[in-house]
């Protein structure tokens, strides 16, 4: 299934995509949150959808992030060799982990707001994992049993805040609107091979990132297992798995970054695409 949330900001309803259409499932599900993913409601929803009538949602309609209020967003840094190379960083021996504030989450096509005093707002197309079952000290061979599905994520980063302002990376990762997620969560059965998905990103129509999840340094099951050794993963938690080469920080002959009026488009095979219009912060 493909899970979506649609409607005005803060008033989204749960839905599913069938073909090209969105159908309302709010009569079956209150929302796509920790309770939903943790109570086996996904399997129950599949049964209800197969056996019942659903109301089609009239387009156009705004899409929100396809899940709400995850307990955490855990990010894996430098998980593609070409991205490590373009940033002059060594290949990590173990996954580099950091957090992104959940308050950064917005819908897939909502505006990107360049933060106040930002000069180096950057883009990063990423495959994200949605946890479907509580995971603590999970073995790698069992890790996918704890995955509900996958989703497109743009891990926006303010490089000055991240790299030049001391402390952890979280300051450069957590600004409002820095986590557009969606358009939908694809359940595991929708994705034939999660380690063979093209992911791409354009700025103003120019392809800048064009990679494949086959080039992940640390695989999806390894990442889930690894993180679960350090913290409990709860249903609905998001793990975002890193970005391929082509970010603003790695541009040659010199880095360049987003400005007001730019348009960012990105996508992943089987996970759809999204578009963000870039706007400057206004008080």
Automatic annotation (TrEMBL):
Transmembrane segments: none annotated. It comes from the Bacteria. Keywords: Metal-binding. The keyword Ligase does not apply. The keyword Glycoprotein does not apply. Residues 72-278 form the Fumarylacetoacetase-like C-terminal domain. This is 2-keto-4-pentenoate hydratase/2-oxohepta-3-ene-1,7-dioic acid hydratase (Catechol pathway). It comes from Pedobacter xixiisoli.
